[in-house]
Structure formats: structure tokens, C-alpha cells
Amino acid sequence: MNEAQGEAGRDKLPVCRGHHPHLDAFSEGGCGARTRLMVVGASNLWFPVTQSIVVMPMSSAEQASERASRLRVVLGTQLAEFASQPNVIRALLVANRDPLADLDDVDLAEVIRLAVSPDRDARPAVTPAQWDPVDLLVPEWQHLTRPSAARTHDVSSGLTVTPRRRTWR
Fold first, then answer.
1. 110 domain-assigned
2. Residue 76's domain spans which residues?
3. Per-residue model confidence as pLDDT tens digits over 146-160
4. Does residue 53 belong to any structural domain of this protein?
5. Residue 15 bridge partners (DSSP)
6. Per the domain annotation, does 127 fall within a domain?
7. 7-to-32, 43, 67 alpha-carbon distances in Å
């Protein structure tokens, strides 16, 4: 690379031969332009880790369970302390600016009941070292592979599922 830098290096580099690898094309005879050295540093090669999440529709039971889990997280030990006082819990939710504060009295009482009841499906807390991004994909896969109850699809969400016969074994 040292020999290809500067004025002396410019004369050692070939003229454009017409290869366009980024376009998967080739121009006969090239364009005659001089090529130049471009060093690509590590900062140009680094890409952050991204995570894609598709929000799937929840049944009313799943939504209630999700709300109960959220209430447990938001209130922590205060939940057990004020479980019999929904007005105090609502005030705590308002103080935390949590959307659960917008539930009506009947729905909030049900969420509190679910939150203080023993959770049969409770899983131990997962530390970041134990977390696997595939865990996010499991509910999506279960939703997408279950048979559709409707004959037509709700296209307002942009998501359509069409069952197909499996061709692999």
C-alpha cells in the first residue's frame, strides 16, 4: 500500500478498466479515469448489533398476564403492601407515569388480582449474559405458524398469513 500512496503511487495504479462490482456490471473499454487508493479503516467496517422485534397481537388472557407482569415490575414490593388499596396503586402508577393508571377500576382490580396471585408460568429472571435473542422470535413463530381462524386476512396491520402445504420432511 505504501507504493500506491502519493504522487509516485498514483502513476503505478491502473486506469479504470470498466469493472463496477457494486453494480454487478462491466463497461467495455472502461472510462479512462485514474484509480486512487482508498484505505478503509475499522470504523467504516463496524456495524452495531440490531434487534428486530415484530409485535404480535395478544389474546385477552395474554394481555392480562402482560399487564400483571408490568404491575409487578413497576411497583415491586409496594404491590404486596398496597394490594388491597386500588386507589393507592393507581396513585403510584400515576406518579410513575405508567399507562396502567389509565385502566378503569374493574380492569385495574383484575390486573392487581393477577399480579398478586402466584404465577404458574413464572420463569426465573434472565440475566443479560443468559439472554438469547432467539427468545424474542419464539412468540412470533408460534403466532405465525398457528392456523388462521378467519377465512380472510385483516390487511390493515400489513401482516397476512397464508397457510401452505409443507414440502420438506
1. yes
2. 60-116
3. 666 655 555 555 656
4. no
5. 34
6. no
7. 18, 26, 68
